[in-house]
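Two proteins, back to back. First:
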Amino acid sequence: MLWTIIVILFILWLLGFFGSRVIPSFPQTGNAVHVLLVIVVILVILNLLHII
């Protein structure tokens, strides 16, 4: 379940980062891209600590 959330957030981050370059009508996300990246990193760290 956690990996699903991580993958979804990573895909949303990619869309926010590269979306306006690929599709010009795609909205600019600004700081939301960085917030998603931080959330993904935190979830990965929490998941790794749970496994160890």
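And the second protein:
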Amino acid sequence: MIRFENVAKRYPDGTVAVEGLSFEVAEGELVTLVGPSGCGKTTTMKMVNRLIEPTEGRILVEGEDIARAEPVELRRRMGYVIQQTGLFPHRTVLDNTSTVPHLLGWSKARRRERARELLDLVGLDPDVFGDRYPEQLSGGQRQRVGVARALAADPPVLLMDEPFGAVDPVVREHLQNEFLRLQSRLRKTVLFVTHDIEEAVRLGDRIAVYGEGRIEQFDSPATVLGAPASTYVADFVGADRGLKRLSVTPIEPGDLEQPPTLHLSDRLDDAATRMAADGARWAVVLDGADELHGWVSAATLAEAAVRNADGAGTVGDHARRMEAWLPLGSSLKQAFSTMLQHDAGWIAVLEGARFVGVLTPAKLHEALRRSVDADARAVARQDVELETIESS
């Protein structure tokens, strides 16, 4: 979709903004450009819509050399979102959102319909927000309008220059979540500039880590964190890159343990006997459809069985609800956070509503090690055999 071929930008005073850029962004891919201020990441993005002209090399979008395109028409074919949104203060939210369709000559009815559709898509009720002006919106709401405006003419390419950098951390995380939701649905080709490595890791399908005017590493977030290409990259992503990697490592079926399971309707005496025979300290409790209900300890069942010598009662009478659970495919960071939040020694993992296993702290650590080793060896996670140190 976007291809850079040995692109450079040099200024008359001898300043070199970027040099020797050669990389590709696939259709539907979100690539984050990350690095310190002045490293050339914004220059790279602005060359794509010709706000800055390259000194040498070629940039192709959908196979077309953009140097041959009329700049204004080129920009109308791309969505552009900046940090301060750039909304027109004298125009309503609906009018701001329909700016590009208006320039393209769409009818008033068509562009208003499109603006309403997009405001709803980014989580702003057009009946509530459509007639407001930018000054009547919060910072996060203005950023949503900026994204909606960039999507108005359904462009194949989105250029985003630190779009969430001017809002507080809570709003920023919410906007990131909303943008990931939109991207999973729309699959735009996105160049996303940020100085925040955590944002780059969270959003990007791949990351371009910039040094001074050049890309030091262009790879998946997991690889950048697990196998930095240089000392510079390792220093930039930080000494806590192992923790950051948790956010891009999903829970897989092979990471899970299979504890004993009981059902709500199981007889109390039968369940206590099974638990004692297995030597298990606790069991997961499922309902009649094998969906997660909670858990129960062996001690609780044994005590209840003694009190009810005739075996009356069921597991459901003594099971506790399970609050610590996540869907399969959630990140290890979410798993670790859930364990801490609920002070849990393990969390249940579901596929849909079906219980598939539990993740323990030891298995979480093992999953992270497998992920790092898999990238280093270029193999699948399930093919990695970990070395362990036996305690004496």
